[in-house]
UniProtKB/TrEMBL annotation:
Its main location: other. One of its GO terms (molecular function) is growth factor activity. Coiled coil: none annotated. Belongs to the CCN family. It comes from Alosa alosa. Residues 115-180 form the VWFC domain. Residues 265-339 form the CTCK domain. PROSITE patterns: CTCK_1, CTCK_2, IGFBP_N_2, TSP1, VWFC_1, VWFC_2. InterPro entries: CCN, Cys_knot_C, Glyco_hormone_CN, Growth_fac_rcpt_cys_sf, IGFBP-like, IGFBP_CNN, TSP1_CCN, TSP1_rpt. This is CCN family member 3.
Length: 359
């Protein structure tokens, strides 16, 4: 029994010594308090905004800041952003806070993953701004290209100018209008043609703010077509679509035969004598002698410059009578601003058929 008691005491001593050594070599850390951090307050309310919004550089969006207070110029790629200064989302940018761990206060504007664009065999990344020529500043946004014209398009000189020309000035990108011909008299619509009421300028009409768009270009380059516009100049003040007949030039006449010797253009063409208009078997009650736009044998095209809208009454075989609005051309001009369907920038050009000078 003595040897058994001795063995138990020996084991107990070894266990106590091991426990003491373990507690000495592996101390248990005491919990400590986290370091306090004060987050920067970028937004301040109530809002205090300047009287005039800032002027942003070309191609930089003017946005409402992240505090939903004031207008600010959007941050661009690589610039510092935060909850107040937003990135230019129109260019597919977002604020990347991944490098500011763990605070996530300040970020850097970066591009969202998107589809690039291709133009003229050049690949542009999503959100990239580029200038394909001196007239346009373009932007690639997720596969689509949007462009802003850098030239201030203007109408030709507001004089009776049958051959205005846009000339290239050395050292300048945008063309300038010139007109060398003197002012001439003007022939308007015939006296028996009643001019249709015009509501081109917005104004109050029977407790209604009338708004009317310009007439669209004629649907056909020769022969009778249609031109439309949107207006609310009616008793109900409702937006409706109006139509008028238009005929820029006849299709069955060789206008080139009427050129003067040595000339390459004829801006105005008229039939030898007055005739009656016809539509769907109905004939105008009175004859008319309209003007038509001519043609050119060089690179110029002739389009309406001055026009008005007249009301023409038609008589039909069944005895019915109807009235149509008809485009009456007062003047045309020939220039180099011709439509080219294959031109990438054709739809961005300002063609004067859209905003003719109305009487």
């Amino acid at each position: 029994m003595s040897w058994l008691l001795t063995w138990i005491l020996l084991v107990a001593g070894i266990h106590e010594a091991f426990s003491q050594n373990s507690s000495a070599t592996m101390p248990v850390p005491e919990p400590t308090a986290l370091e306090p951090y004060n987050r920067t307050q970028y937004c301040k309310w109530p809002c205090e905004c300047p009287e005039m919004p800032p002027t942003c550089s070309l191609g930089v969006s003017l946005l409402i800041d992240g505090c939903d207070c004031c207008k600010t110029c959007a941050k661009q790629v690589g610039e510092v952003c935060n909850e107040k200064d937003p990135c230019d989302h129109h260019k597919g940018l977002y604020c990347d806070y991944s490098r500011d761990k763990p605070r996530y206060e300040k970020g850097v504007c970066a591009y969202l993953v998107g589809t690039g664009c291709e133009y003229n065999s050049v690949i542009y990344r999503n959100g990239q701004s580029f200038q394909p020529n001196c007239k346009y500043q373009c932007l690639c946004v997720n596969g689509a290209i949007g462009c802003l014209g850098l030239c201030n398009e203007s109408l030709p000189p507001r004089v009776w100018c049958q051959t205005p020309r846009r000339v290239k000035i050395p050292g300048q990108c945008c063309e300038t209008w010139i007109c060398d011909e003197p002012r001439r008299g003007r022939k308007t619509a015939p006296r028996h043609a009643k001019q249709a009421p015009s509501y081109r300028n917005s104004g109050w009409h029977k407790n209604c703010l009338t708004q009317t768009t310009s007439w669209s270009p004629c649907s056909k380059t020769c022969g009778r077509g249609l031109s439309t516009r949107i207006t609310n100049a009616n008793k109900r003040c409702e937006m409706v679509k109006e139509s008028r007949l238009c005929n820029i030039r006849p299709c069955d006449v060789d206008i080139i035969k009427h050129f003067r010797p040595g000339k390459k253009c004829l801006n105005i063409y008229r039939e030898p004598r007055p005739t009656n208009f016809t539509i769907s078997g109905c004939t105008s009650t009175k004859p008319y002698w309209p003007k038509y736009c001519g043609v050119c044998t060089d690179d110029r095209c002739c389009i309406p410059y001055k026009s008005k809208t007249v009301e023409v009454e038609f008589s039909c075989p069944n005895g019915a009578k109807l009235t149509w609005q008809v485009m009456w051309i007062n003047a045309c001009f020939c220039n180099l601003s011709c439509r080219n369907p294959n031109d990438f920038f054709a739809e961005l050009e300002q063609y004067f058929e859209y905003s003719e000078i109305m009487n």
